[in-house]
Amino acid sequence: PPRNCTGVRELEKRLSGPRPKQPMGFPNLSHPSPLPSLSPSWLPLSLPPSPSSSSPSALTTALGSPGEAAASCHPASSPIVSALLAPVLGMEFVLGLVGNSLAFFIFCLRTRPWTSNTVFLVSLVVADFLLILNLPLRVDYYFFHEIWRFGDTACKVNLFMIATNRTASVVFLTAVALNRYLKVAWPHHALSRASAGGTARVAGGLWGALLLLNGHLLLTTHSSRSCLSYQLGTRPSASLSWHQALFVVEFFLPLALILFAIVSITRTIRRRGLDGQAGPRRAVRVLAAVVGVYTVCFLPSVAFGVASVVAFRLRACHALDICSQLFHGSLAFTYLNSVLDPVLYCFSSPSFFRQGRALLGLTQGWQGSDSDKSTYRAWRRARSGKVAATGKLQV
Prior knowledge:
The chain is an all-alpha fold. It has one domain: Up-down Bundle (Rhopdopsin 7-helix transmembrane proteins). Helix content is 71%, strand content 0%. The chain has 13 helices and no strands. It has helices at residues 2-16, 56-63, 66-71, 79-110, 116-133, 135-143, 151-185, 196-213, 238-272, 278-313, 317-348, 350-359, 370-394. Helix 7 (151-185) packs antiparallel against helix 8.
């Protein structure tokens, strides 16, 4: 009809005329191509994806699995610990080198006759001396803020030498204590009267066992920058687990043996009424000094090491960081044991104290005890008798 045609013409006229402006922020829905307004570039870049589009793998990567959460709890190295360890280890190197060189000279060249106690003391000197010789590389490592500069082979040898001789120092220190126990509690036993040669064979067997116990350190691969025998904050391998177990056992087992020796010697002295004799009283003083040095040098590192393992198992990252730094710093006390051992020799061997004073020029001629003099005179008579017998046979 004509009315409908007129309506159609008015609609076409309105559509062909100018379009009214749209409010800001709203797209023109009558635009022939509205798709550009819905393109990804129109969306904010910081909008997170919707939860429905997140895959399980993406969620695992963001939060971490339980195993990865424990593995990501790594303790950070402390520049303060490195700054303290470098001068402390340097001082221990100087003092230990002087003390153990003097001890080695006295025992090897000035002490006669050699007894079973002398053999164990010489083995202890060798262990301490070899450990001290490896400290300069550790000083360099901490001076450059825990950066190893000498290659993987040198790192393996350095860690092996330090661990082996530290264990040897503990073992022969315990052997000295047990030897004192045998002399007092079982004076007529065959072990108490063992010769120097037989004791040397026992010491050689102990050295062989110590090399085998620490041989795993020669097979462990380290990174190009780090050189540590322990790795706190990581899941330990079989080699690292063995190293940690050995570190704990070599503290508690010798300590138990030394305490047993002290209690047994004290009971023997009281039971036999030997309070007035110098020998048993000196044995108690030696063992008391050994326990004191042993506890001061090794207890801090063992305590902080165990605390670090517990903190890692509990995923307490802050506690792990603190305990690992304390453990790292307390390792300097384990090296201090090799510095203090020459002081123990003065308690264990009166002849060492006499020779040391003479070499340092602190006395014109220090007089030893009557027992020391009688022992030396008996050795001189036995030696002169052997020389005389040899001369008669030659004639």
